[in-house]
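Lab meeting tomorrow. Please check the following:
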Amino acid sequence: MCPEKNNSVRSYYKALVKNLVRTDGPISRIALNKLTGMRLASVTDVTKELLKEDFIKEIGFECSKRGRRKVLLDINRDAGRVVTLDFNSNRIIGLGADLKLGISYRSRRIIPSNSDKDKIIQIMKEILYEIIESPPVKIAPVLGIGVADPGIVDENTGISILATQMKGWENVPIKDVMESEFGCPTFLESDTRCRLIAEKHLGAGKMKNDILMVELSSGIGAGIMSEGRLFRGSRGSAGELGHMMILENGPYCNCGSRGCLEAIASSKAIIRKLQEAIKSGTTSSLSKVCRGDISKIDINMISQVTEDGDKLSLQIIEEAGRFIGEAIANSINLLNPEIVILTGDLLAFGDYILNPVRGMVRRQALSYNTKDVCIVVIAEVGEEAAAIGMAAVVLDKVFCIPELRHQREYGTR
């Protein structure tokens, strides 16, 4: 066999073993032999090379009552780092993570109001430099950078196509900008899909393969997982639940359409409705809480007055919950997920919004799809979920197994 083919096949098996140790470790050489079909001698040869490179390590022995105990291999979590950002119109969260998704460094920055595209990108760069130069991250090479984006993305080109909640944020070449600045492979993904990945790894989506994740914040979006794989659609924009038309001739949406779910039930829509109602003379204790300046009304204030029984806030939140429940019920009928996971700012309203959401799902979704299942649940991972999920995306990318064309020419039986 020519050296080129031999090197290609060897690279394939080296990448395969490295990735299996990362995803399935601790794992023995015998188990790797069974999973890959490689000769045991070839497994030993490849693992010896990876041990020498300090990418994997021996961590002890497999528990066994019979025969010789097998040595277990695991990824060396400190052999590299990945750095990720999650941003929206208000703030940026940055993380440095090791090869087992352990968080080694955190950063959080508020985006000043009226910041334009260039200012936001500059803040992103500042946070990335801060993380990369921090001692817990600096100890290992940075293998990749990931950005969880609040809008529509083209993951192949790394372009942020559109974020309807961010003025002027269109066709931003995130990948090119960050690779030019830092010289590291950079990847882009929808923040809701990243949250879904985090919940699959660490939260409410464990042991589930068909999942719908719905984010309820200033924007409304969905992440879809089918048979354990992300569903992106033909152009990568699947999951734009917020732009499902719910109310004919409803308010205009930032996308240019009318009656979108995002325009009538997002956190911004709820705040706007309350401001308009108070301005028109409707009584609400929010007037006192915001000290007469309705422009200061936010989700925390609304949550506070709903707990105190403010009728106007309760009415508008319940209405939003019904609209959201209708959209989720339609999605359940279309996709038949095992579970629907909710995340986002609106969960601050607790049962005041969850009860109408769940009530509408029970009413509108096919009972066959929801029978005996608590299908609508709350996300468990927390505010860092998108950045953590993005770290998992980056690791999958940098540990990607190259295509093998001459599979039988090296190490197989």
